[in-house]
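This is your field. Please look over both lines of this record.
***
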Amino acid sequence: MNDRRIRAIVIEDEQEALDLLTGLIEATGLATVESSTCDPQEAVDIIIRHEPDILFLDIQMPGMSGFDILNELRGLNTVNPQVVFTTAHDEYAIKAFDYAAFDYLLKPIDPDRLLETLQRYSQNGQKVAAERSGAMYGNEKVLIFRGVTGVTFIDTSDLVFIMADGNYSTFNFISGRAETVTALLGTVEMHLGKQFFRTGRSCIINTSYLARIDMKQQQCVFIRDNREYRCEISRDKVKLLMDHMKSRTAEG
C-alpha cells in the first residue's frame, strides 16, 4: 500500500456540499484536499495547477457541467486525474462510464462508500499512478452500468464470465457473486479489454481465468480457489479461442 496521502481536488457548485465532501475526505485520513471551488469556470485552471491524484467532480453545475470540464481537460491533454463523479442523480451513470470514471458517488454521500473509494485507490496506488496518463481516455478496469436496483460497478479483474439474458446481462465474479445489469451483451462487449472473448451469442469469458476447454460438453472451464465455473462455447468458436489464447501468450 502507498502511505502517501492521496491528493484530491473537489469541484462542487454549492458551498455547503463542497465543505461537507471536503470534511468527509479529510476525515478518512487517506487523502488531503489540495484545492476546491464552487465555480466550474475556475476548475480547469485549478486542476492543471495542482495536478491531483483524484478529482471529485459534481456533474450538474450552472453554466458548465462536470462533463464539460473533462472535455476541456481532454483538449489540453496536460493532466489526467482519476475522476470520481458526485451527483444526486443516477441517470448520469452510463455517461460517467463513457468518461472512464474511477467511481461514481450518489449524494448524500455515504462516508463508508467514500472510504471504500479512497481505499481502492490507495491499495492500487502504484498501478493507478502508472495508468493515469490514460485515465480519461479509455479504462476498462471498472465498468459502470444501470443495474436492476440502481447503479452497478463492475471490477473486470474479478469477472469470470458474462451471460446474456434478453435485454439484460449477468456478470459472474470469481467470488461467486452475480450482478445483473440492463445492457445488451453486445453493448457490454464494446467496453471490455482484450482478455475477454465472446464464445457465442450468449456468453463472454475472461480468458485470464480459463483453465481448459471441455470439448465433449462444449464448455469453457474456469477454476479458481477450488471453485469451478462453466460457460458454453459454440463449436465454430473453439479454433478462434485457441488462436486468441496463443496470441495472448505470445504477447506476454
